[in-house]
Specification:
Elements lengths: L3 H16 L4 H21 L4 H8 L6 H20 L16 H4 L2 H16 L4 H20 L10 H8 E2 L2 E2 L8
Antiparallel strand pairs: 1-2
Helix pairs in contact: 1-2, 1-4, 2-4, 3-4, 6-7
Length: 176
């Protein structure tokens, strides 16, 4: 992993954080993690920030500590690779697994084909995104209920997602 850019530019990140009123604890966490990366990159022979994260949380037990490490490394990665400063309204997507990635191959293919058709029909990208997101959530719910292929979907299974004891428990979104 090449850390030359981080080595040269991390003082800019720390200066930005100080000037913009980031808490002393958060500042210290970022600074400590940057120093750890710069000092140990050759020892651990990391190739990516994901490797840094995995080494860092290997012995963690607390979900809070793991999430904190993920957040801190995500901030450093974004700054190093995109020259992006931390932003309170924009979370890092570092190591986030999308619902789409959790879908079976058949369901992912279904989503991809529908997105392709929607583009050919001239739908806006924002509409395609919303519809594919809704479809992904719906298919994930089916998959969690052991219906992981189109052939395995049953009317009862679909109704169970929306109704519990005859009462609507979940609204529906237009799915493509």
């Amino acid at each position: 992993m090449d850390v030359q850019n981080l080595q040269e530019k991390y003082p800019v990140l720390l200066s930005y954080m100080k000037e913009n009123g980031y808490s002393a604890g958060y500042f210290r966490s970022i600074k400590t993690e940057i120093n750890r990366i710069l000092q140990k990159v050759n020892i651990y022979r990391w190739d990516t920030y994901e490797d840094v994260y995995l080494t860092g949380v290997k012995n963690f037990k607390s979900k809070k500590a793991i999430r904190n490490k993920q957040s801190i490394i995500g901030v450093i990665k974004r700054f190093d690779e995109e020259n992006a400063f931390p932003h309170s309204c924009k979370r890092s997507n570092f190591l986030k697994i999308s619902g789409y990635a959790l879908l079976s191959d058949e369901y992912r293919s279904f989503i991809d084909i529908n997105c392709s058709i929607a583009r050919k029909k001239g739908k806006k990208e924002s509409t395609i995104y919303v519809e594919s997101h809704s479809a992904t959530n719906f298919l994930l719910k089916l998959q969690q209920n052991r219906m992981d292929s189109l052939d395995s979907i049953t009317e009862r299974g679909v109704l169970e997602i929306f109704f519990q004891e005859g009462v609507l428990r979940r609204n529906y979104s237009v799915v493509m």
